[in-house]
Amino acid sequence: MNTTNPFDEIEQFLGRTPLGGERARGRDLRTADIDVAEYADEFVVMADLPGFDRDEIDVRVRDDRLAIAAERDAEREDADRRYIRRERRHESVTRTVGLPTNARLDDATATYRHGVLTVTVPIDVLDADEGRRIDVN
């Protein structure tokens, strides 16, 4: 019997989960909902990460891609509690977004307020008529 989930395969195709799917190894891996906007002078990614603390969020740039990851563990076991149902456990979310080629990665900033992470990456403004100049050595 095939135990793969076709929706996991779609998520992999869209680049929202790593190949092989972390779900297969027992971790709860899901994607963060995002909005992406490109303005004249900046590229902005807003990701919903409710319930995470700032120190649980990791934002990195690799190979012209912005990677957002957040990971947390639920509260510790309490021997005095008798759970009828327990669903709050380890949680991990991830999302990767391609960045424009004219992004100024060293000037990127990130803020986290009310469960929303906002990453702003300035972009070099290119004159559409002139294009981008390439120096010849």
From TrEMBL:
Protein name from the UniProt record: Heat-shock protein Hsp20
Entries under SUPFAM superfamilies matching the protein: HSP20-like chaperones
Domain of life according to the entry: Archaea
Organism listed in the record: Halorubrum ezzemoulense (Halorubrum chaoviator)
Similarity-based family: Belongs to the small heat shock protein (HSP20) family.
Database matches in PROSITE patterns: SHSP
Pfam families referenced in this protein's UniProt entry, alphabetically: HSP20
CDD domains per the UniProt record, alphabetical: ACD_sHsps-like
Domain SHSP: 25-137
